[in-house]
Structures are given as structure tokens and as C-alpha cells.
Amino acid sequence: MTAAELEQRVVRLEALEAIRDLDARYCRALDDGDWATLVSLFTVDGEFVGLSRAQGHDRLRAFFAGLADSGLTAFWHHVTNLEIELEGPDVARARSFLWQPCVQDGVPHIAAGRYTDRLRRDGGVWRYLSKQVSFDYFVPLADGWDHGRFTVAAAAATYPGRQFA
User: Fold this and answer.
1) Which pLDDT band holds residue 159 (cuts at 50, 70, 90)?
2) CA 2 to CA 8: how far, in whole Å?
3) What is the CA radius of gyration of the chain?
4) Are 95 and 131 in contact (CB under 8 A)?
């Protein structure tokens, strides 16, 4: 391996690690209700797409704070299987699975779904251009699922007509 190839490999590994760290900081800030930190993880024109759409720091801050004000609180935001694809030195895409026990209007729920992210290095720091969440599963915990008891049949029952492999 040449010195140039080694340097490229190190740069790539550093980018991947920085994106993993960004994802971990996102989860911590969301769990802590730290809206200022959460919003700082997005580019100035970054957007969140999911329950609704918010773009730009002011709207992102209002959106995330509004989730808590509407009775939705997360008590453990867990992301797994983070797959990162570097599309250039300053652009990347990432996909991951989401598992999140939460409380909606005082009732414990479980949510499961996926994130699809577009990222850009902005001022030497990786930030979200877009973070999109889609939920495959969102039901009261009493209806039969916790992390140890999840079944495909239980998930399929929450979405009649949808095919699960």
C-alpha cells in the first residue's frame, strides 16, 4: 500500500467515525431534550422529515420542542445497523434502524422504524442535510411488544394489508 492510499484510507475511516459520533450525539440530544444541541447537528438549511417536515434551525427547534409539548417523550432512543456510504469527501448517506420506547400522552409505547440520512461536511464538521424517519411499528407497550418479545406477526398486525417477509 502506498502512502497516498494509506492517507485516503485514514481519511475515510475518520469520516466514518465522525458520522457515527454525529448519530450518537443526535440520539443523546433527543433523549435529553437538548434542542439547541440537536439543531446544531443539522446544516443551516437542514431538514427533518417524518411525522411532519421542518427545515432550517428555527423550524427544527420548534418541531423537536413541539414533540415534547404534544405529550411524546422518548426515554431511550436506540439506533442500530448504521450503514454509511461516502459519496465524496464531503457528502454521505446513512441508513439505520430505530427502536424507541416512548410515552405518548402518559401511555408507554414502542416505536420501530428506520432513518435515512443525507449528510454533508460543513466547516470541517459532519452535519445532517436531511434526516428522514419512517415508522413501521408504533403501538402501546401493553399491546404485546417489548424488545424481548417482538414478533413479525405482532408488527404485521399493526399494518393490515402490508406484506412482511
Assistant:
1) very low
2) 10
3) 18
4) no
Residues 47, 59: Cα–Cα separation, whole Å = 9
Task: Report the phi/psi class of residue 33: left, alpha or beta, with left for phi > 0 and alpha for psi in -120 to 50.
Answer: left
Three cell numbers, residue 100:
424507541
pTM (whole model) above 0.90: no
- For residue 52, what is the DSSP state? S
Measured CA to CA, the distance from residue 65 to residue 151 in angstroms comes to 32
pLDDT tens digits, one per residue of 30-60: 878 888 999 999 999 999 998 789 999 999 9
59-105 tens-digit pLDDT: 999 988 887 776 666 656 677 788 999 999 999 999 998 877 777 77
Q: With helix as H, strand as E and coil as C, how does 93-160 read?
A: EEEEEEEEEEEECCEEEEEEEEEEEEEEEECCEEEEEEEEEEEEEEEEHHHCCCCCCCCHHHHHHCCC
Per-residue CA distances from 138 to 3, 34, 72, 115, 116 (Å): 50, 24, 12, 15, 18
